Amino acid sequence: MKIECIAGFAAITKNPVDSSSLYQDLLGLPLERQDDYLFMDRFPGANHFGVWPLSMAAQSCFGQDDWPEHVPEPTATIEFELSDADAVEAAVQEMKAKGQTFVHEARTEPWGQTVARFISPEGVLVGLSYAPWLHEK
Questions:
Q1: With pLDDT > 70 as the criterion, what percentage of the chain qualifies?
Q2: Topology of domain 5-135, CATH
Q3: What is the pTM of this model?
């Protein structure tokens, strides 16, 4: 596996109003809005930063609004970008062979990103990702 960059980072919040107040109002970040998701792309030092409501993370991972009680609730997510969609699947198989369990294995999201996710020991939702738009020249 060869990680190319950090594809994205988002704080996961139970209180999007307070979080948007911090990141937009107090820190002055130029966040855009898509539904309840706040984000900015191509920010120097990272390709993406977002404030992701826990209910949206649960929808993305489990197809439901509530985070399952048997899975630790994440407070952040980080995604590591790989070279292509096949590399994501290969990385999943590599990590599973070493004992890693996944919240979900590689799949293509409606927005075109291929991603597999797991919970880190410290409770971070970690994604192995291929986002085609990050590879456009």
A1: 100
A2: 2,3-Dihydroxybiphenyl 1,2-Dioxygenase; domain 1 (3.10.180)
A3: 0.79
